[in-house]
Amino acid sequence: MSLNPSPKTIHVFGSLNMDLVCRTPRLPQLGETILGSDFATLPGGKGANQAVAAARLGAATTMVGRVGDDAFGRQLIEGLQAAGVETRGVATAAAGPTGVAAIAVDDAGHNTIVVVPGANGQVDGEDCDRLVAQLQPGDMLLLQFEVPLPAVIAAAQAAQAQGATVIVDPAPARDDVPPEFFETVDILTPNQTEASQLTGLQVTDLPSATEAARQLVQRGIDLVIVKLGDQGAVVATADRTWHQPALAVNAVDTVAAGDAFNGGLAVALSEGMALEDAVEFATAVAAASVRVPGAQASMPMRSQVAALQTT
User: Is 259 labeled as catalytic in the residue annotation?
Assistant: First the structure.
């Protein structure tokens, strides 16, 4: 893992979705229909969310991925550009729509999400080539699992060869990740569900999260952070393991809180923050995000994070 005292570029290789968000008093049970209270179309996709998070925190940020030749695709690119993200790496798919995510959010801020990949499912080696053309030694690469796994693996391998730091958010959870993939990963940031899927453990609390993090470090990953929502996070390296508490805030919407965390972590490390400070900063970025509804709309500015850290 390469950490540098001068800020480096943060590259995001991954998904761009339009989020179709319904607000409901509570999440429906299986087979149940309930009335919602609001609906909105909001820019999202884990990759794009992380790019906006990093850019709003002041980092030089690029996005590599695909959208469809449709209104949603054009809106997503415009939204990234407005946030300060470089979008030359975003291609328009020859066929197929822009990816969408159907999201239900209840009054407690909990959510369920159904993702239809669309153009995200066409990301391949050509997109990886566009990424490689931008990578420099010491840069940061953020990856997720909302685009095809072969492309994610190729991007991680290319970044490792270029001397970039590879940060992987293994979401959505999957059980077909080859063991050799972890040899290219510097930092892994699963949530409880993803940590359970990757280790076979039932991750429900701090002790089980700590054991999962330690097992993942044993696969050769420098740093593992198991994100636990309002319980904070468990952080593990080869030398030590500790708990980072969450900040107490009034959560309005937890959509993209994990993306805010990863964007904040990448920014902090790219600026040369000590690991403990970087994790604390990322936790504050995530906490600031849950106070605002939406995905990219909830990504905070640097001043908002600083204000939260001083309260």
Answer: yes
